[in-house]
């Protein structure tokens, strides 16, 4: 295989979403807007009607079916304790490489990015908030962030497959490239120099949410063009990261009603 062919093949497989667990895999096989590519089964699985149904659905939709040792399947799912002997590679139309953002010519575009959000439930609720809002999508790095799995899908209430998700290995290079392209990079921080209500709705910007406990990483802070805060009352020091995501996602909707943040 040529170097170009290898790169194209690697880029293709890097863009696939791998799900594990029997319920998430079955949901993916039944979703009409998701193309299953390969169903992975542990050869040691005990016979079960749900596994037979999965295999039939996969084959009927043109997906390959492979059987692996339990150890090999665990390497594919990256979660041998919870994969229940099944995993699937899928093409999700809204799951895109973050590099593709550079080709956008949109004058007005707001995105959300996560920096080391490690709780799957939080990540799922963030995806759900973005998917229901006017935001153009969410940037999710593989490094340091909860992996997209059954818990994330469940917490997103199915919004994962309808929300524009831009994936990357590391968030820092993506944010730096967007900043160089003219995007405003705003980190959420309790000590930010301006409030969220002072940020206009027009223009191009990325709001960055940090880790649940430690906030933004030092590297991300250096890339940010500014820090913003959400004013809190009654001595409350912070909000859950998914609640913060919801406030950001719908701030333009609130502003349109004449309210202020």
Which descriptors apply to this entry?
alpha/beta, 4-stranded mixed beta sheet, 10 helices, 60s Ribosomal Protein L30, Chain: A, 12 strands, 261 residues, 8-stranded parallel beta sheet, 22% strand, Alpha/beta knot, 2 domains
Account of the protein in words:
This protein has 261 residues and is α/β, with parallel strands linked by helices. It folds into two domains: 89 residues, 2-Layer Sandwich (60s Ribosomal Protein L30, Chain: A), CATH 3.30.1330.30; 162 residues, 3-Layer(aba) Sandwich (Alpha/beta knot), CATH 3.40.1280.10. The strands form two sheets. Strands 5-8-7-6-11-9-12-10 form an eight-stranded parallel β-sheet, with helices on both faces. It has a four-stranded mixed β-sheet with strand order 1-4-2-3. β6, α5 and β7 form a beta-alpha-beta unit. The longest helix has 12 residues. The radius of gyration is 20 Å and the shape is globular.
CATH class call of the largest domain: Alpha Beta
Q: What is the annotated CATH architecture of the largest domain?
A: 3-Layer(aba) Sandwich
Helical residue percent?
Answer: 25-40%
Percent of residues in β-strands: 15-25%
Strand tally is 12
State the separation between the terminal residues, measured CA to CA: 56 Å
**What are the low-pLDDT stretches, counting only 5+ consecutive residues below 50?**
none
Number of domains as seen in the coordinates: 2
Query: What structural class do the secondary elements suggest?
Result: alpha/beta
Largest sheet: 8 strands, parallel
General form: globular
What series of H and E elements makes up the topology? HEHEHEHEEEHEHEHEEEHEHH
From the alpha carbons, calculate the radius of gyration and give it in angstroms: 20 Å
Mean pLDDT: 91
- Read across the widest sheet, the strand sequence of neighbours is 5-8-7-6-11-9-12-10
Count of discrete alpha- or pi-helical segments spanning 4 or more residues: 10
CATH-assigned homologous superfamily of the largest domain: SPOUT methyltransferase, trefoil knot domain
């Amino acid at each position: 295989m040529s170097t170009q062919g290898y790169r194209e093949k690697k880029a293709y497989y890097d863009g696939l979403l791998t799900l594990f667990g029997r319920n998430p895999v079955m949901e993916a096989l039944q979703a009409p807007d998701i193309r299953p590519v390969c169903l992975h089964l542990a050869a040691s699985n005990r016979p079960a009607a749900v596994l037979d149904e999965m295999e039939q659905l996969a084959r009927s939709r043109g997906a390959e079916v492979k059987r692996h040792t339990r150890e090999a399947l665990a390497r594919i799912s990256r979660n041998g304790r919870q994969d229940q002997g099944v995993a699937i590679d899928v093409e999700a139309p809204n799951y895109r490489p973050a590099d593709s953002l550079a080709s956008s010519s949109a004058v007005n575009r707001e995105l959300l990015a996560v920096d080391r959000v490690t709780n799957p439930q939080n990540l799922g609720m963030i995806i759900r908030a973005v998917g229901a809002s006017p935001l153009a999508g969410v940037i999710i790095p593989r490094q340091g962030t909860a992996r997209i799995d059954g818990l994330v899908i469940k917490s997103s209430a199915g919004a994962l497959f309808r929300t524009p998700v831009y994936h990357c290995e590391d968030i820092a290079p993506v944010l730096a490239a967007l900043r160089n392209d003219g995007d405003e990079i705003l980190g959420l921080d309790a000590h930010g120099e301006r409030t969220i209500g002072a940020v206009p709705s027009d223009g191009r910007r990325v709001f960055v949410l940090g880790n649940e406990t430690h906030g933004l990483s030092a590297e991300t802070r250096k890339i940010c063009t500014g820090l913003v805060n959400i004013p809190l009352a009654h001595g409350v020091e912070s909000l859950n990261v998914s609640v913060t995501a919801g406030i950001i996602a719908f701030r333009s909707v609130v502003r349109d009603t004449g309210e202020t943040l």
